[in-house]
Amino acid sequence: MPKISRRSFMRGSAAGAGGLLSLQYCQSSLAEMVEKAAQPYRKSENLYRQKWTWDRVVRGTHGTNCAGTCAFNIYVKNGIVWREEQQGMYEASGDTPDYGPRGCQKGLRHAKYMYGKQRVLYPMKRIGERGAGKWERITWDQATREIAERFLHHSVESGPSTISFGSGTQMGTKLASAAAHARFCNITGVTVPEFFSGVGDLPTGSYITLGQVYTGDTMASIYKARCVLIWMANPAVTRIPDAHFFWEAKYNGTEIITIAPDFNATAMHSSLWVNPKPGTDTALAMAIVHVLLDENLYDEEYIKEQSDMPFLVRMDTMEMLRAEHLNILDMLAVKDNVFYMWDEATQSIVQAPGTGMSDPPIGRDRRKWESIALGDIRPALEGRWTVDTLDGEVEVTTVFELLKQRAAEHKPEDMAKICGVHENVIRRIAHEVAKAKPMMIYTGYAATKWLHGDILQRAMLLILSLTGSIGIEGGGLQFGNAPKARGITGYAFAGVGAALRIISATQWDYEHGNMRELNERIYGKELAKEFDDAYWYSVGKKYFPDYGKSGWKMGIFAGNNGANWRASGTRWRDTAFGQLDSIVTLTPDMSVTAHYSDYVLPIAHHYERADMVLQARTPYLHVLDRAVHPLGDSVDDFIAFGRILKAVSELAEEKGTAAFQDDVDGNTIRRDPRRYYKLYTMNGRVRDTREICQFIINTTPGIPKMSFKELTSKGIIRLEGSESTAWEDNASPYHSEIFESVKDKRPYETLTGRQQFYVDHEWFLKYDEALPNHKDPLSNKGFPLRMMMGHARHGIHSMWRDDPFLLSLQRGEPDIYINPDDAVARDVKDGDVVKVFNDAGRFFVQAHVSSSMQPGMIFMYHGWDPMMFRGRENFSSVISTGGLIKPTTMAGDYGHLGHQPLKFAPNQTFKDFTCDFALATVEEIEELAA
Amino acid sequence: MSEDPHSPDKAPEASRTEPSRSRNSQDTAEPRALVYAIFSKITSSPFDTQQDQLEAVFSEQSAKVLEEVQPQLPFDVEFTTLGQRIREVADRNLEGLSREYSSLFEVGNEGPAAPLRAELIRVNASKMKEEIVRFYDFFSYDLKDDISWSPDHIAVLLEFMQVLCMKEAAAETDEERESFARAQLDFLDRHIVSWLPITITRLIEQKHEGFYTHVMTKLWEFLEQDRIWNGDTMPRVEQES
Questions:
Q1: Residue ranges making up the domain that contains A559
Q2: pLDDT of residue A597
Q3: Could you state, in order of their start, the residue ranges of all structural domains in chain B?
Q4: What's the whole-number mean pLDDT along residues A636-665?
């Protein structure tokens, strides 16, 4: 063995350098390193003669909001993730193609992306002006101490409701992570703006009609459909691991029809592509409804039993006939939920089965006791009758009759002029959907982002209902599903009770972002007043809470890039976000939200944590096992929030902060900051996310019971109740209420207990929306182009959007798709930098001239962070819709319609605006560069 | 079918020629190791260094060692000003040093202004990182868990160079010495000098005139000289047809 030479220099002057010579990064000491035998090295080729082996292969996935969830093997050597590979052991559901292998280019880039320059590795504190980009690294101790000071101050002085907690899908889609967030919020009483409606994703139309927001099944259900309308969705781009089901179904004889204004990647694979003008889809849908009704192409038995179409409506007030209209005692009892049909068997009115039970206080859930089965009743769909009421004789008819009248206002030849789709094509679609059973509409979140997106969804559901396709395998509105959150809420509330403060982000933004002023400026004083009056009427009537009393002092954003996607862009940053006294962002990657924060805390990425993901598109639970140590100083968010609460509790002890009372929705909650940390960790019993995962496994129905360790060895596990491609089995973890209504005749969770297409709330009548009805989208006066957006192929929201390799597969920077004629008219060529503008703002972007766009529209894939744009302004700058809070979505005092977070709340509008573009001038580009 | 040029029995014979300068590992390797060690520690993050070690690095003693080692090196590099800068830092609060380091090298909106990780600069970063790990494995240089994710950090790369130098110094045969010397030259060429100028350029572009710009400039001066000297003292292997 070689012996270290003991030269005089090292013994002499460098004797004091002993410390300097010690090795800082090596596990071995210098002496050990010198002693170690080494192979002879001649040239770098020698290095490659040694076989490359893996230290371990770990099961993982990406807990992000693609809703896909793909099982990967993660390959680790020397504490580094080198690559990932798709796991391929998925099975099929019955005779459908199987679910695997699953994965896309984004997931396959993560091993590289996680080491990228965007990664937040250390706690950072702002040292310049907000947004100036000047940071210093600080220790976790310093960060949590300083954050705790502010947190405690605001909690005690202004109340915990003044602290806003934005939980984003980056972390919230991981179950243990979401549970930790929920427990943190539940214990501390911070305000949680719910971003389901905040990002305009809330399927309001679905909730109005079905009483459910979760109507989706596994992707294999597509294979069971005989006709699929892909409507406002682009699954070839957004559902890469699952899009094969569409094409396999097509080769199996299913008609695949894509309805999209642009010739997108899905359209090119479809049997038929239909391109309505942007924002006119309801005209198309109602024209299809017209054909179905006009040509008697509907499933009569189905709609009589499952829908409100046979229900009677008073012609004098246009209200549905109720028990309180007929009998003085019922009037005094306010029996507004007993409805009637005309029974052809007895030629008399008869109470509709399944109506009349109370709204669901505990133990009286009518779904458990009632049935909508018709029995001997033979409800009439058409006719007019006279009924004795407390107001005297009143003429009544059916919802179905009114629907026919409404449909008659949407003749294909008339709607063709609005939507630009030829009447013959409309009829062809109607005939295709009528003859196909089951029939499916696969739709995306673009549908819900229009001001009147709720009406479009109601019209889609009308098509499905008329064809008898809701609640059967291979049919229905495929919009998404979510697990019954029992494991997560169980963990959040364990030992402390439920004291979570969830609010509507849209409503908060409206009140604090001075959105009435924006509405006045963009859409005119009349609309602004109309909306504002409705808003305050709703708040005054206590349909919805009033968030105006207390502002927010502090914002905590956890995996949430809220400053990116707000529907009034830079304006929101100035009027709301920028007004916060303290902003803390917890994130694995830098973003515009982090950029404007005071503190940024580093959070472990997908392969650096133990967690699980449950997404309804496959019948599997997926595991994230920790493959490597979290990079730098990052930790998972369970630990991060634990550190914050530990600092809060210690500080509260030091200061002698007493417990205080906190009012949450009328309930008085005692909050004691000194106990926060103990409560968070259940007195130290919960030490890491593995234990939270185990809690969730043990308490969530439908997840096979096993240890988390066993799950990490398997990677994925098939869920219970997943024999069908649809979530129709109550034993599964997912919502199956609609199937139960169809199969077991249980009432829907709507006021009428039926698929409810007629809404006789006074506002719906006032706005002529009692039944679905096409309404033109709003525009910015003087700006001719409608800007459309959609999820991107190369990113999941803002995640991976800045990955250099993925950028190299695109144009390397944000681009906007433009029709060639529109480009020529503005002297713009492909690749030019253009200014997109309207009266709300502007942004600069590369022109991508493409004949896939129809004239009059421009298109931009979303998710590009403002940090990637010149001047740090992205598309949000021209989205002027932040104040378009639709009055009917703040209705209340009407059965299932009223404030219900994550179900019925004002949905944020993102689509109702127009803009223009022009070639950017040299001066403008220079100005931005400066 | 073409012949495989890498086939052992087809490989061309190699012959050696004398280096242009004498290497004399006995005298040169240890002083060079010491310089690598000091630069490794100076370029380490103050946040990731123990306080006592930090105080040892930024001390009068450390500056003195640097000045004393200068004449022991087989090439000319001037360390007096660096020693002086180290003394100045030692007299100041080290907190300021941490702030300067972190804002330059660790945090930023779009990554650090002047990355010290090769991965953030080099193209084909993964391939590069793989070769670094292969180097480490080849010489049994085993990183601690908390830094294993970043084998390409300049401080780690320099520490590895320190180890190679020390192994050269301790080697008992010419063959061993040549092995470690060749590894130094290759590693220096392929994994340090290939990207470090970009970081230094970024520092200069920012007109940053603080301590670390001086450190990096001086480091580059040393590396350039060491690389030339390494090349000049390496027995050349010439391919014979």
A1: 124-201+500-518+550-718
A2: 96
A3: 22-232
A4: 97
Give B198→chain A minimum CA distance, Å: 15
Residue of A nearest to B96 (CA): A136
Alpha carbon distance A111, A663 (integer Å): 46
Q: Verify that A144 and A289 share a domain, yes or no.
A: no
Question: Using CB atoms, which residue from B44, B138, B142 is nearest to A28?
Answer: B142
Q: What is the CATH number of the domain that holds A223?
A: 3.40.228.10
Average pLDDT of the residues in A142-157 = 98
Collect all residues of chain A within an 8 Å Cβ-Cβ radius of residue B149. Answer: 79-80, 115, 628-629, 631-632
What does chain B look like in DSSP terms, one character per residue?
Answer: ----TT-GGGPPPEEEE--SS---HHHHHHHHHHHHHHHHHHTS-GGGS-HHHHHHHSSHHHHHHHHHHGGGSSS----HHHHHHHHHHHHS-HHHHHHHHIIIII--BTB-SS-SBGGGTSSSHHHHHHHHHHHHHHTT--B-GGGTT-TTBHHHHHHHHHHHHHHHHH--SHHHHHHHHHHHHHHHHHHTTTTHHHHHHHHHHTT--SHHHHHHHHHHHHHHHHHHHHHHHSPEEEE--
| Domain range B22-232, CATH architecture | Orthogonal Bundle (1.10)
Residue A187 lies in a domain: yes
Mutate to test the interface with B, among A46, A119, A137, A601 (most CBs of B within 10 A): A137
Residue A422 lies in a domain: yes
Identify whether residues A17 and A149 lie together within a single domain.
no
Residue A347 touches chain B, beta carbons under 8 Å? no
Give the residue on B whose Cα is nearest the Cα of A42: B179
* Chain B interface disruption, residue of A43, A78, A109, most B CBs within 10 A: A78
Q: Model confidence over A172-200: pLDDT tens digits?
A: 899 999 999 999 999 999 999 988 999 99
Interface of A with B in 91-130 (CB under 8 A): 112, 115-122, 124, 127
User: Would you say residue A474 lies in a domain?
Assistant: yes
pLDDT at residue A5, rounded to an integer: 43
- So what's the pLDDT on residue A368? 64
A700 and A659 part of one domain: yes
Q: Give residue A835's pLDDT.
A: 98
pLDDT for the residue numbered A561: 87
A34 with B65: Cβ contact below 8 A: no
Q: Tell which A residues from 128 to 147 touch B, by Cβ distance under 8 Å.
A: 133-137, 139
Provide the number of structural domains found in chain A. Answer: 5
